[in-house]
Amino acid sequence: MKNVFTFILVLFLASCNAIRVNYDYDKKTDFTNYSTYNYYPDMDTGLSELDAKRLLDAVNSEMQLKGIRFSEDPDFFINIESNSFQAPRSNTVGVGVGGTGRSVGGGVSVGIPVGQPKMEREIRFDFVDTKKDELFWQGQGQSTFKENISPEEREEKLRALAAKVFSKYPPKK
């Protein structure tokens, strides 16, 4: 019984910090044609300058692991956009009052929000063919976000997000 409780607790804690990933791509694309990349020169990531640098370092590491080189004359450009938003609250406590008496009943229920609102960050990566000027792959990662964490924790979260998103590139057909 103790092991079951421990397993459920670990599963619950792991699900709280999960990075959710979505991706899409053009089915006609031959991904072997793309071996070099660069970033859009006028890219606005929506992140602070330090976080943008951390994220670009993480993307560079992931691309290098895949054998894709940074180049001044690339096969594709990467555009990165992000936004932060407050996740909807799902935790409520129901307080109910009701009564019955001789087939007459009634009740009132009130939902009271519990806990502080959670901030979420969504980062989208667009891969655009430089010759055709067409989007051929898009990945998006979403995770919880806290503004007041250390620089090391920020870097680790951004690296984990980049690793999870780019685990889906190139797509398996």
From TrEMBL:
The record's listing under Pfam families reads: DUF4136
All copies of the DUF4136 domain together span 21-171
Per its UniProt record, what Gene3D superfamilies does this chain match?
3.30.160.670
What name does the UniProt record give this protein?
DUF4136 domain-containing protein
Species annotation: Zobellia uliginosa
